[in-house]
Amino acid sequence: MVHIEFPDHSVKEFPEGSTGIDIAKSIHPQLAREALSISVNGELWDMMRPIRQDAAVKFHKWDDEEGKHAFWHSSAHLMAEAIEALYPGTKFGIGPAIEQGFYYDVDPGEGVVISDADLPRIEAKMQELARQKNEYKREEISKKDALGLYSKKGDEYKVELINELEDGTISLYKQGHFTDLCRGPHLPNTESIKAIKLLSVAGAYWRGDEKRKQMTRIYGITFPKKTMLDEYLVMLEEAKKRDHRKIGKELELFTFSQKVGQGLPLWLPQGALLRERLENFLKGVQKAYGYVPVMSPHIGQKELYTTSGHYEKYGKDSFQPIKTPSEKEEFMLKPMNCPHHCEIYKSKPRTYKELPVRYAEFGTVYRYEQSGELHGLTRVRGFTQDDAHIFCRPDQLKKEFKDVIDIVHLIFKALDFSDFETQISLRDPADKEKYIGTDENWEKAEKAILEACEEKGLDAIIEYGEAAFYGPKLDFMVKDALGRKWQLGTIQVDYNLPDRFELEYIGSDDLRHRPVMIHRAPFGSMERFVAVLIEHTYGKFPLWLTPNQAVVLPISEKHVDYAKKVFSFLNNSDIRTLIDDRDEKIGKKIRDNELKRIPYLLIVGEKESETNTVSVRKQGHGDQGSQSLEEFAEKIREEVEKQTAFQVE
Ligand SMILES: [Zn+2]
Ligand SMILES: [Zn+2]
At residue 314, does pLDDT exceed 80? Predict the structure, then answer.
């Protein structure tokens, strides 16, 4: 018999060699149907794999990332089987599950091209194979046998992968006529793959190395139900419409130039102004919470980053040092603002009475990303963090954490992100050696975070073992209008940098102590935040933030003079207003300006010019009746005030 422990810590006995399916069945037949994979002592296993030792287990269903992962990874094998059947002799690279679906890198051989037009045929073959209910059978084999198998098959990609594996750890999975080198886990059989969509074909270098063979990467997604696929495809269409790159262009917020360089966004006037409003809002909040501004240059001596450890982490795979006429000097583009802020902290001696010190800077940092990884504003090579570093005493951590949580809340409220999740990343209690800092400090910090979250009413997910080696952290993930999750703000405790930079303060005991450092960026980066905001709002920003708040539309040429009067009155009242005095029909003007996502359309004709009023149309709300200019201006001010008002608790 083996002892099986469940997540609620209950333990049951099962015959040795029982599988996940056996165990699930004993709990409930439905669980056996729904479970897609099982964690066995923290390792992901197939539901069919016999368990021969005492183990702690956890089942993963479709709702878990792990469950989807097994589903999509199994689908990648299914696609490979279909491709092998349709394109005999195809060689296979890797075929992982990804955040949404899966891909497989394949080499169909000299002169054979697989294009988008071929996808329906592969899809149909997959459907046919899925209906055969073939089992995914696991087999463990020696390295020698694995090499023999794939050398014989002539698949040099798999041979290369096997050569890097250690003997005794190699497993194969076989379903139908297809065998793949794989760690698993997989579904019991192909039956549950009910809905299949192959999405696109792209080129991808073998192992991401541009000097090596370009393979064909085929992306797809599968679901256990047809309706789920339908919903996904609708979401995908909607996501395309909301693509921040498309809307950013339409609204003239930002651009990219090949000449300036890939991944280096250029903010256009409307985008720069929008960003300035975001920054000013956060600056106002931060000032109220006792932050002070600092500024630091875009480069620093290489030595600064060897001290901080960033050179070790980013140096080799990032922008290379900048040389100067003097051979001894080397500078780096800054990958992080923290080292600079540590040196600012060190600019004078500190005592316990001065702490906490909170330095804030909208600091631009540079990190090299491979060109294939770049994506609009979400993956760039230069970006501005809404960064701040808090240097405090250990006993101040909780209060500081609570304040940062408040700041994040204020931002989410002002920007209408009402749906978000939080995750607390703590140490792995079983492996304390890999973390820097004393046990006592870690316990204090973890307790401070947990209590701060609880007192702020955050229902945070706690992940053990997810902390960085230098400290625990709290992450905020927002759900956008399409239900997609984005990681935004982070609050991170750090014991490492204060050590590396030998930061100190004199305590009430007259002795030297190390302050604790908190890194925090509620937006994350301005670029990424604006991208998420665009996709979330469809470019219809909250009134306080939106580029143009109102537009005046004269009904005919006769009313242009009055329209100009309205236009200057509102701009003088600090309401960002445009005028559309084109010689067009009023219906067309309304449609055009609605497309520009301007929240208020002010129509002026005979009646309005006589009574000094405007006829107000609000986007999404229709006709609001006629209002005097003062009345309208006052309403806008009130609405903005309501959106951006905050109170320090
Ligand atoms: Zn696999
Ligand atoms: Zn930092």
Answer: no
Q: Which residues have their alpha-adjacent CB atom under 5 A from ion ligand 2?
A: 338, 519
Q: Rounding to the nearest 10 degrees, give the CA dihedral for residues 462, 464, 468, 469.
A: 150
Return the closest-CA partner of residue 165 out of 179, 185, 145, 135.
145
* Gyration radius from the chain CA atoms: 29
Q: Are 189 and 136 in contact (CB under 8 A)?
A: yes
Q: What is the pLDDT of residue 437?
A: 76
Report pTM. 0.82
Compute the distance between CA of residue 41 and CA of residue 7 in angstroms, rounded to an integer.
11
E-state strands within 508-596: 512-513, 516-521, 550-554, 577-579
Has residue 287 got a pLDDT over 90? yes
How many Å lie between the centroid of ligand 1 and the Cα of residue 8? 30
Q: What per-residue confidence (pLDDT) applies to 485? A: 87
Report the distance separating Cα 334 and Cα 382, nearest Å: 10
Ligand nearest to the CA of 178: 1
Averaged over 383-388, what is the pLDDT? 96
What pLDDT sits at residue 125?
Answer: 97
Confidence category of residue 433, pLDDT binned at 50, 70, 90 = confident
Ligand 2: distance of its center to the CA of 274 in Å?
A: 25
Predicted confidence (pLDDT) per residue in 315-350, tens digit? 787 899 999 888 889 999 999 999 999 999 999 999
One-letter amino acid for residue 612 of the chain: N
Phi/psi of residue 211, each to 5°? -85, -10
- Ligand 1 is a single-atom ion; what residues have CB below 5 A from it? 182
Return the ligand number nearest the Cα of 473.
2
Parallel/antiparallel/unpaired status of strands 577-579 and 178-181: unpaired
Q: Which residue(s) pair with 555 in the sheet?
A: none
Biggest CA pair distance of the chain: 93
Residue (of 105, 24, 15, 82) closest to 52 by Cα position: 15
pLDDT greater than 80 at residue 265 = yes
pLDDT of residue 315: 79
CA of 317 to the centre of ligand 1 (A): 29
Ligand nearest to the CA of 92: 1
Distance 170 CA to ligand 1 centre (A): 12
Ligand 2 centre to CA of 338 (Å) is 4
Q: Which residues participate in catalysis according to the annotation?
A: 338, 367, 385, 387, 389, 473, 519
